[in-house]
Each structure stands twice: as structure tokens, then as C-alpha cells.
Amino acid sequence: MTIPSELERHIDEIITHYPTKRAPVLWLCHLLQDHFGFLGQEQVEWIATKLSLQPINVWEVVTFYPMFTQKLRGKFHIKVCRTLSCHLAGSQKLLERLKDLGADFTVDTVECLASCGTAPAMMINDEHYDSMTPERLDKIVADIKRTGTLAKEPIAKPLPAHPLEKRVLLANITKPGYTGSLADYEKEGGYQALAKALTMKPEEIVNEVKNSEIRGRGGAGFPCGLKWSFLAKNTGKPTYLVCNADESEPGTFKDRQLINYDPHQLLEGILISCHATGAKVAYIYIRGEMPHGANVLINAIAEARAKGYVGKTAEIYVHRGAGAYICGEETGLIESLEGKRAYPRIKPPFPAIVGLFGSPTVVNNVETLSNIPHIVKNGAAWFKAMGVPGSTGTRLVCVSGPVKRPGYYEFEMGKLTMRQLIEDVCGGVTNGKKIKGVIPGGSSMPVMPANNLDVPLDFESLRKAGTMAGSGGIVVLTEDVSIVDATLNVSQFYAHESCGQCTPCREGTLWMEKMLHRIKDGHSRPEDVDLLFEVADNIDGKTICPLGEAAAWPVKAFLKNYRSEFEKACNKNG
Amino acid sequence: MNKITLTIDGKQCTGTAGQTILEIAHANGIAIPTLCYMKNLSPWGGCRMCIVEIGGSPKAVPSCATPATDGSTVVTQNDRLTHLRKLTLELLFSERNHICPICPMNKGDCDLQQNGYKFGIDAIRYPYLYPTLPVDLTGKFLGLDHNRCILCTRCVRTCDEVEGVHTLDIGNRGVKNQIVVDLNTTFGTSTTCTNCGACVSACPTGALFDKNAAFHGPLTKCRQVRTTCTECAVGCGLVVYTKENRIVDVFGDNDSPVNHGHLCSRGRYETWAVKRNRITTPLVRKNGQLVPVSWDEALQTIRKETGKMLTQNKGLLVSGKLTNEVAGTLAHLQSQVGHIGMYVAEHEAALCSEPVFTGDAFQRITDADAIIVLGAEPSRLQGVVAARIRTAVRKRGAKLVILNARTSDLDSYADIVAHVVSVERAFWKRVGETLQGAQRPVLLYGPNAMTPLGITAMEKLIKLFENGNGPAVVGIPTTTNALALAGAGIAAVDNVAQWLTSGPLRAVHIVAADETDGGAKILRDREVVGLLKGFNYVVVQAAYESRLTELAQVVLPSLVWSEKSGTVTNFEGRELLLRPVMPPRGQARDDKMILESVFA
Predict the structure, then answer these.
(1) What's the CATH fold of domain A5-64?
(2) Is B91 close to A511, i.e. CB distance below 8 A?
(3) B172, A64: Cβ pair inside 8 Å?
């Protein structure tokens, strides 16, 4: 096995990004797999030798992350998204077309590609395809077969703003000729907030962010300034900032847009946050299924470094994931960044005290960090003037499912109801079907029944409505959707993504999936509905990380709101 | 240390800040069910059996991984927790193929089964998954049946944190998680497994089991005896399980101040799980053949042949594995036997010339931030010491410098390895830089450090620490009790051939005890075979047949480790007790008794 010298130079460069020898494992796995097509024993041992690790340390990582393969795949690896929005939009039909393609093709399903608004989505190697139809798929496959190569698939154009929107983070992206380059970003006033921030004391920035009352946009909605203030001080260890760009909550596709169309806004936010928190190094953990986004960020960092923004006060490095939803959980992400299996850590200690590489660490979502330049530039008062108390600022929401205009939209929080969003902004449901329910914040959030749609879209109102704002991924379910089928689809996702640490989640998620299969196929017993609820309840709050809740809540909520559908399915044969 | 007080199940409990709820509960006599928890391992927190409620919060937290806070109120038992634990147990039972009647841990040795009984699990409401999983029986001593695994990772953590080799790990994800050996190979082909068996001791179910112990009955029904391993100078504590005077299994003694429950493959398996030919009756050579005789006849034969010999014509060559009590007897025999010597490993005589014990040596190795191994081979000879070195390096970042002629697996963990000690300046500069700033250095040396080159190296090493904390110098002999025997006045013999020929020896009595090679290591020098053949009379007192017993005129059966009583002194100077685990096999007798009757 030989490694080209250019590749080895690249690897040597990547290794310098990390303070431990183990952390670059995922990167090296990506690079070697890109080169050889798979990670066999030789590749694993080469990486282990390169990083002075035991081969088993590399192997355990290879087997944890589904993007890595130990066997050579076909030259063209087709990955069709099978998760909820794509499933509703007919991804199954795509899969049916993908039979007997020959040895050049490997076909897999993949868990949520974060393109729910343009469902069904799929990837072939590193190319991403939106709004697929069986006909288009046939053409793409035929073209590959004819030419023997894979054509580049252009990235979709940004969506224009709807009149009801209030675009702050998305303000630049639809400006004519805006490319997201450094020059374009500077033309729109970019990096002025950083210049201002560098004249401020770190505490002043932290206070400004605290006063803005911005809450984390990742899912839990924890106040960002408060999170920063928990960072352990005077530990003698460096502080790390980690940007969570592992957008994988089904129904959510907002961070993808912020990265693809306006990467410098995020970089500026990271640099300011580094100054505020005292971090000298920041890592952007981007999910493996976004190779384009990773390149956009790497190029943007290079531009910003050449201009003296990156590298002066803080370094920013990109770390690629490899297909694990659990890396969206901050301690799972930290483990993954350290080059390990993404097993979430037991808390306490919290990352703010013992985080990445044993140092105080803050993990923030892409959207949260993209807000920081605006808060610093315009002040906390300006930010707080948007939205409602407890939910300040704007928020990106993603709408998918059978609506006329699915997509991502930015609103002042609390100023719009769910009904307005679906009916006015998204143009209502296609084919005039009735809404059966709405998942308001990614598939892990409890579903809202149709009679509850006048709830304003903010953290508190949604909480009062018995659900949560989550990650802002809204999935609309119409009357023709089988709830049993939807629940099964969601459960399959969590069963696939459970890391396997905790008994109730490892087995409970699989068991729920199997049980739902049985119910759907009409092979279950009537008492299974209660047992299903009981298993979900045994996961909820009983696991190390919140994936347990994420897996349990949707099942519990679907059961609670649509119990009769489950009972009917149970009794189909009985 | 800060004392904290909390209420657990209504009982006031005190502990130290930083302790987990489980530790404090256990220390205060409150039992919390566990599966993945194991004392002295990092917490995993995954099985969810030890869940408790704190301060009325509905969140059930794992008590094994949650630090106790002062003034908190903890509930470990209530209907809800019992219900949740039952649900977890049901899931575990349904996950793999837990078929108790065909499991070697059935009826008492399985934590999963015991918890099942305790919680009254009489049926599983979930459909069994019945996965198809492999069984690995290729290991020399251990077997791995994935069908019985509950993924508690106790084996993985033990392999990593105690033995320090990290042979075992978890592969795949979620419900597909599986314990793997190396890169998904088998025990039989593993390149890193040391066969220490710690994973088997850690396994709460029958997933990992000792092949030799399987289906010999539950350990809980066996007789247990605590004794000391006599395979090397470390002196690990053993717990030996016997049934009907047969050894069923051997585990490390968790209460031993030496090994704290950990063993190497020699102590754990090789002394009982490897078949050896035992000598069970006295043998006397008649017409060129060794034939079984009674003790009386054997002793009479010896007396007849050697009774009239002068003291100076008689020699006694003994193993360094003998107990301190036998050493006492030997001291009394000086007046009747002209020459008493102890045969040892190469260069070991010099180590025995001024026996030095280093108190607390083991703890110092454990705590060391720099370890130098000079002329010693812990990986091959003192596996438990090697484990401590590995974990010191891998877990606490200790520096490791190995200066030894033979390679070992420890080399891969070392900062510097030299098989030939160089005199070059650059080399010693590098060693100096590596060890610079060490606060708790340890210099571990073995017999091979006793060569002129080794002594030069040792001097150079000690000089490196002139301006800092000097190292704890720990000598570790190869032969179990050589230092104590030398201390009792029995001279170590470096060159057996020379010893045999230097005096007017005509008869030699060799006490080989229960050395695994039957004492045949004396014969490593080919010359000795010829010399012994030329002797008027050779008596071999040994437990196992060997090339040495083949040369003898009379063979006297002695006891093995599991039948002995007495004491040995380990390399730290601890006097450790041997307790008989079972009665002597056949007509074998204690070495002390044999010597007394031969030389009475």
C-alpha cells in the first residue's frame, strides 16, 4: 500500500490541527477512504502507525460511523435518504428504481440528508441531489452508465424571501450577485463586527450576548450567554470553542444554508465568540454528509486567513463527521472530535468544565454563532427588540412535507403562528388535503395535533402547547399520512442512530421499531400499544444523553394523539 | 478531604467529596443492583440497573457515575425504580440468546440471572431477537460466546485499564454493538491478548468463560481457598475454587495488597489448566528402569547408597521456588551435607548476593511517572508488573525506557528501547531528556542488569537523576523465592557445572519442587547432563516428570503449589501465606518432610 506524497503532506497538515494524536483519526479515515475506496486492515494499520495508536483505536471508529466502509463499494455510491420528509415525498419509489444496476453501483439508504425542503434527496458519492423524481434518477443513472463519470451537480440557488419574513442571517444570500465570498461579505459590512469586538473586553461581549437573551438554536434552547459564563476560568488549560454543524435532526436543513451561502458570517461569529470566551482554537464539526459545506468552509477559512482574520486572534479548523446523529449531542460530538466512537459522556462534568481534550469547552450551533456578529454590531437592545420576551431575535425555520412552498424561512420569534406559516408563507397544503398534525422542531419533538395550529412560533408558546421548538424543523403531516407508518419511519431513524451505550435506548429503540413493524403489518397483539408506550417511557429520561428522549418523545406523542390509528392497525387481523 | 453527608433511603450516610452515590451507598451497607459497574474501573453508566432518584427529580441517574453532593436526598428503591429495572432486565434477556440451562454460569455465577431472580422476571413480554452470533473457542484458555453478552463493557474496560493491552473493544453501533478481539479476529489469532483472563473475571454473564472451568459446576457451590501464587517473585493473591478435590478455577484475590485481584496467565491458568505429568509415588531405578516403590523402600535405597558417604561427598541443589520453611530446614542440614546450593536464572546469583527488597515497590510502579526497565522482562516473567507498566504509560502518560536484550510487547509503549546498551553520548543524552523532570521515577532491574554492561548502565541512569528526585530502585528476581532463600544463607549457584565439579561430590540430591519444567532448567547447560550421569547417585525430589527425573536413581514425589503450606517472601519483602487448597496427590509429600526423612 502506498500513499502518494501529496496525500501524506495533506495528512501531516491535518495532524497539526489537533493537540492529541488520536483526534485526527476521522479525518485520516476520510482521506484514506477517498483515496482507496475503503478502509481495510492495511489502511487501518497505516493510520494507527501514522498516529502512534493501536490499530483497534482506528478500527473501532471505522465500524461506528456508517460512512466508513471496510469493503470496496461500487464506483458510484448512491445514498437515498429514507427519513421522514423524504419518505413522505416518495424516496421508496427511488429505491425501487435502483435495482440491479451492476457492480459499478452500490445503493444504500441514508439517514436524513438535511434537505427535507427539497425532498426526496439523495447523494451519489459527494454530489447532492435535491427534489428527485424517478424519471430524473433514471436519467442520472443512464448518464453515468453512458459516460462512466459522475457529472457535477450544481448547488441549488438560495430561496427568495417571503414578504412575511424578517431576514437578518439570510439577508445577504439573495442579494444580486452575492456569492458568499470574502469580498462580497466585506462589501455588505462583513467583519466590521469583529473589528468592533476586538476593541471590546471579552466580558463586555459576554454581557452583550447575555443581555440579548439569545437562546441556542440547536435544539435545547439554552441561553447562549449563560452557557459562555459557565466556562471554567484559570484552569491553566486552553479553552475551546466548537461549532456544532452536525445538522442531522430529521426535518432540519437551516445550518446547511448558512454554511453554503454565507460562510463568512459564521466565521465572523466564531472569531468574535473566541475572543469573548478566550478560545484560541475553534473547530467546526460538520456532518460527513455535507462534503460541499466542508469545502465551502475550508475555502472561506483560507480566504479569511489570507486577509488576517483567521489566525490572528484564533484559529478555526474544520472537522468532518462520518454519519452519526449522536454527534449532534455535544459530548458525543466532543468524543468524536477527539477521534473516538461518539459515546456521549456522563454529565457532570459539563463541557464548560471538562470538555474537548479535557479543557473548558463551549459548543454552539451554527445559527447561534451566525447571530453573534449582528448582536455585537447592533447591540443587545436591537436584538431584543425582535421577537418576544423569552424568545428574542429571529429564527430560521425549515418546513417540509406536503406544502406548496416548502423551504427555510427566517422570522421574528413569536410573531407568527404555525397556521400562518403553513398557510400564508408556505401556501398551504398541496391538493387541498387536511392537516393531521405538525412536528414543530425536528422529528424528536412531540407532534402537535391539527387543532393546535394557532400557537405562535416561539420557545415558550410551543412548550406550553406540550411540545418544543427544537431545531426549527417543521414537518407537516396530512390526512393521507399513516401515523403508524410515520412513527415507524421516525423510530427506524433512532434505532439506527442509537450509539448502544445504554440498555433502554440500545434495545428499546430497536424494539420500538420491530413492534411498530408488527403493528403496521397487522401481526401484533392489542396489548402491544400499551407495551410500546411503556418501552418509550423507559427510555425517556433514563439514558446518558438526550437521544433517549429524542427517540421516546415522538413515539409517546404519536401514541397519545393518534392512539386509535395504532389500535386499528393492531386489530386488523384480529 | 471534604466529608459530605447525604440521605440515602432515609439513612444518613457519610462519604468523601468526589465519591459516587453508589460508592457511598455500598460503604454504608445499602445495596444497589448493578451490572456494568465494577469497582476500580471507570464508570460506564450504560446498563441502567443502578439508577436512583435524587431530590425527588423524576430523572433517573446512574448512581455508579454520579458524584454524590452534600445534603442531597437519594432514593434507591421504590416501585418506579423497581419497575424500570425490571424493564431493563427484560430488554437484556430478550436481546441475545440467554438460555440459562446450557450456560456454564447457570445456577449462581451469572449476575444477569441473579438479578432476574431477584426482580422476579418470570416471562419476557418482548419478542426475543434471536440474533445469530458466533462463539469463539479458539483461545488457549478463554472462550467468548456473544450470545450471552450484555454489552456492559466490563471486559473492554478491564482489558484496557487493568491489563493495559486493549485487545478487546466494541465494534459497530447501537444494537449491532459487539465485543471484538483485535481487528475483529479471534482469541486464537490475537496478537495482543496476554491470556491474563481478567476479562473473564470481569464478565457478569457467561459470555466470557474459562474453557477449563466451564460446566464443572457453579463457582458459588465450590470451596474457596485464598493462597499465594508461587510462579514468580510478585506473590499475587489467589482465590482457588475446588470441588471434590479438583481445581475448578483460579482467580486473583481482590483483597490481596499485592495484585488487587489481577493475575497473569501463569498464575491464572498455567499452573492448573495445562496438563503436566505428575509424579505420584517414589521411584527407584531397577535394572535401568524407574519403578514405583514405597516411601520406606525409596528412603532405604537412598540410605544404603549414601549413608556411608562423607558429608563433603554429598551435595544438595535446590530450587529457588521453595518456601521459607523449607529454607529453615535446609539451614539445619548444613552439618550433614557438604554443599548446599540454589540454582537460579542466568545472572541471578549476583542479584541474590546482597538480597534487597523494596517495600511498596508495586505501588511505586503504579504511581510512577517514569519507568526504566533494565535487564528485566516483566512481560514474560511478571505479567502483573507488565500490566502496571502498560497502564502507567497508557493511562497516566508515564515515560518508559527499556534497556533489555530481548524484545517484548512493552517495547511498543516505550519512549526509548535499546536491546544493546549503547555507550554513545547522544543515546544517553536522549535518555536524559526523556526522563527529565520525572517526579516519581522507578528503576526496575532484573538479573540481566547484573552484567558488567548492565551495571555501567545502572550507574549512568542513577547519575541522570543527580539533580532531581532519585528513582526508586526495584530489583526483581526471576526465581520466586530466591532472595529470601539467599537471605537464609543458601548460596545461589551461577554455574551448576562448576558447582558439581568443584568439590569431591559423589551424590547429589536435587530439590526441584513444583517448577513447571520439573527442574529441567538446570540442564540448560548441556555439560550438566553428562556430569549428572557420571555421579554415583542422583536423587531428584520433584512434583512433575522431566528430563531431570529421567536421569535420577531415585525420584521422590513432592507437593505442588496447591497442596503446600508455608510462606514465601515477594520482591517487596512481604511474607505471603500459602494455604493448602487440596490434599496431596498420591503419595506426594511436603519438601520439608522429605528432606527431614532423607537426612535424618
Answers:
(1) Arc Repressor Mutant, subunit A (1.10.10)
(2) yes
(3) yes
Residue ranges per structural domain of chain A: 5-64, 76-147, 182-385, 387-478, 483-571
Output the domain CATH number for residue B490: 3.40.50.740
pTM (two decimals)? 0.94
| Residue A200 region by backbone torsions, left for phi larger than 0, else alpha for psi between -120 and 50, else beta | beta
Distance CA A272, CA A195 (A): 9
Whether residues B24 and B39 fall in one domain: yes
B91 vs A55, A508, A541: nearest CB:
A508
pLDDT by position in tens, chain B (length 600): 689 999 999 999 999 999 999 999 999 999 999 999 999 999 999 999 999 999 988 888 999 999 999 999 999 999 999 999 999 999 999 999 999 999 999 989 999 999 999 999 998 888 788 999 999 999 999 999 999 999 999 999 999 999 999 999 999 999 999 999 999 999 999 999 999 999 999 999 999 999 999 999 899 999 999 999 999 999 999 999 999 999 999 999 999 999 999 999 999 999 999 999 999 999 999 999 999 999 999 999 999 988 888 889 999 999 999 999 999 999 999 888 989 999 999 899 999 998 889 999 999 999 999 999 999 999 999 999 999 999 999 999 999 999 998 999 999 999 999 987 777 889 999 999 999 999 999 999 999 999 998 999 999 999 999 888 889 999 999 999 999 999 999 999 989 999 999 888 999 999 999 998 888 888 877 788 889 988 889 999 999 999 999 999 999 999 999 999 999 999 999 999 999 999 999 999 999 999 999 987
DSSP string, A82-118: -SHHHHHTTHHHHHHH-SS--TTEEEEEES--S-GGG
Q: Give the domain extent around B393.
A: 359-475
Nearest to B172 among A56, A63, A510 (CB): A63
Partner-chain contact B166 A57, CB within 8 Å: yes
Number of CB pairs, chain A paired with chain B, less than 8 A apart: 119
Distance CA A295, CA B181 (A): 37
Same domain? For B414 and B461 the reply is yes
- Kindly state whether A503 is in contact with chain B, defined as any CB-CB distance less than 8 angstroms: yes
Residue B204: list chain A partners with CB under 8 A.
Answer: none
Among the three residues B442, B475, B508, which one is the final residue of a domain in this structure?
B475
Nearest CA in chain A to B66: A348
The verdict on A22 touching B (C-beta cutoff 8 Å) is no
A60-82: string of b/e by CB count within 10 Å (b at 16+)?
bbbbbbbbbbbeebeebbbbbbb
- Residue B577, in any domain of the structure: no
Task: Decide if A531 touches B, using CB distance below 8 A.
Answer: yes
**Residue to test with chain A: of B167, B170, B175, most A Cβ within 10 A:** B175
Does one domain contain both B317 and B399? no
CATH number for the segment(s) A76-147: 3.40.30.10
**Residue B423 counted as domain residue:** yes
Into how many domains does chain B fold?
3
Amino acid symbol at B576: L
Check whether domain A387-478 has CATH 3.10.20.600, yes or no: yes
- Give the gap in angstroms from C-alpha B479 to the nearest C-alpha of chain A: 33
Nearest to B87 among A499, A514, A538 (CB): A538
Same-domain check for residues B383 and B468: yes
Are the beta carbons of A55 and B92 separated by less than 8 Å? no
| B258: in domain | no
Q: CB-based contacts of B414: which residues, under 8 Å, 6+ apart?
A: B393, B400, B401, B402
B residues 38-77 closer than 8 Å to A (CB)? 43-48, 51, 58-60, 62, 65-67
Q: What is the rounded distance in angstroms from the CA atom of residue A186 to the CA atom of residue A425?
A: 31
Q: Which residue of B has its CA nearest to A510?
A: B175
Burial pattern B447-481, b for ≥16 Cβ within 10 A else e, equals bbbbbeebeebbebbeebbeeeeebbbbbbbbbbb
Residue B542, amino acid = A
Q: CATH for A182-385, among 3.40.50.620, 3.20.20.140, 3.30.70.141, 3.40.50.11540?
A: 3.40.50.11540
- Asked if B175 lies within 8 A of A514 by C-beta distance, the reply is no
- As a residue count, chain B comes to 600
Interface confidence, given as ipTM, is 0.92
Which positions 177-216 of B are in contact with A (Cβ < 8 Å)? Answer: 177, 180, 182-184, 192
Q: Of the residues B425, B450, B475, which one is the last residue of a structural domain?
A: B475
Query: Which CATH fold would you assign to the domain A483-571?
Result: de novo design (two linked rop proteins) (1.20.1440)
